[in-house]
Structure of Thrombomodulin:
Amino acid sequence: MRRLPLPLPLLLAGLGLGLGGESEPVPTAPSGAQCLEHDCFGIFWAPRPFAEASAACERGGGHLMTVRSTVAEDAIAVLLQNRSGRLWLGLRLSLPCTDPAQRLRGFQWVTGDRRTDYSNWAPSGQQCGERCVTVSRELRWEEGSCEAPADGFLCEYNYGGSCSRLPPAEGLPVTYATPFGARGGDFLALPPRSTAVIPAVGLELRCDEEDGGGLRWGRAAPGAWPCRLANGGCEGTCGEEGSQPRCSCPDGKVLGADGRSCGSPCAGAPCQHHCVVAGNTFVCMCEPGYRLADDGSSCEDDDDCAVVPRLCEQVCVNTEGGFECHCHRGYEMVEGRCRPVSHCYEAPCEQQCEDVPEGYRCGCFLGYAVDPEAPDRCVLHCNRSQCPAQCDTHTLSCECPEGFLLDGDADSGQVCVDIDECDMNYCPHNCTNRPGSYECRCHAGYRLLDQNNCVKITEEDGEGAYSGDFGPGPQTPIPSQTPPKAEHLHPCALVGIAVGVFSAAMVLLAVGYHLVKKRCRPPATMNYKCSGPHEKEMGLQPVALGCATSSQKL
């Protein structure tokens, strides 16, 4: 049976020569590379559109190259090696049209920013559409279509650090390989995960980060390699006994587990608090307030209150690794000492406060006194008949204590003058004027009912009631009726009294004379007379009853 020939398009596709042809695969290794501390750059000579070139860089862990300084420009010059051709940079137009007035002309780096300290544009006017940038051996930046393939592209790889190239050793050539596929022996710096192969001694080293931080060349197997290559990898001293290289460390340090690094004896020590180097070993120590346990590494708390007597003034409380001093109730800690709690801290005193055993006492400034109705408040006070007024210099208003009147004094300015309440007849009996007030007192037999009025003391009041003028004690009897008050007589009344007394006396004399005359006159029928003792003749004589001699008294 005769087979039909395959269609021509399929045949060409099988040979890799189909219509349009498949593009050749992107090389995995750059044609050239260079590393500068934290950045590496690779050049790929493979015709690709912008998008494919960008994807190829990303597969290797990088991105299309950004040229932000002359340092990056110098790296391009080294990589090109005077070869002609256009290479994609990581610049793509982010605007509808270019803007020649801007430093990047409206383009943006593939990293998403427009930051740069450098540009080197070839002359060009404004262009619109999808535009990307290439660079050539003249190092000029040229705009072009992103779909049109360039001759190649430049990739950039960024790292956190790098290993320096190994120092040259006679008879020991080194070949380096980078993680982005570049190989060679002329690198100045190598990124992490790079390898260095030394075939002469069958050694392969790797740039890796160590436990202590930082990148350095090493290998998985412990111990030193030949001392003539990078000191055998020893951090300290490399020495060879026979054909076996060994590392040693200075005093105060010990060899690490890798047999090459040097570290402190305290590295990895089990000390709970502190580790102190002692030669090539260590000693554990504890913080103050702790003691070293029997295991020699852990620390136990010390009861400071029990170890040191009278550590605190009043109360000692042990804490983890220390102690605290406290005070008894009613005391507080002030600068490390226990002091009685001042009640004045929370007292509502308006002006001054004084601590007293039972609590606090409010006081006032000069010119004020405690308000009797509110002991925490202060009122103006004057204990003389005249005091300076309390004046506000801002409002020019003056105040006086209660019971005083504001008065202007030419010599002393505004003064407060006491009001004499006694002149106002506030008290019915006795009144004593005081600065700013007055006091009423009652006569004996009376007592004060309130501030002003007196009432008579009754039997129901008992012995405790008194007038206010005299205190309790022996009292003279009090009449049931108060005698009238003594009053001065008018002169006319005196004249009237005198006339009345004289008239009464004259009447009494007239009545007396009349009675005497009546008793001594003889009766009409008898002619007897009454004779006295001067009569010489003595004899019986008729005498009226009641008659007497002149020596007798009526």
About this structure: Residues 221-263 form a domain with the Laminin fold (CATH 2.10.25.10). DSSP finds five helices and 40 strands in the chain.
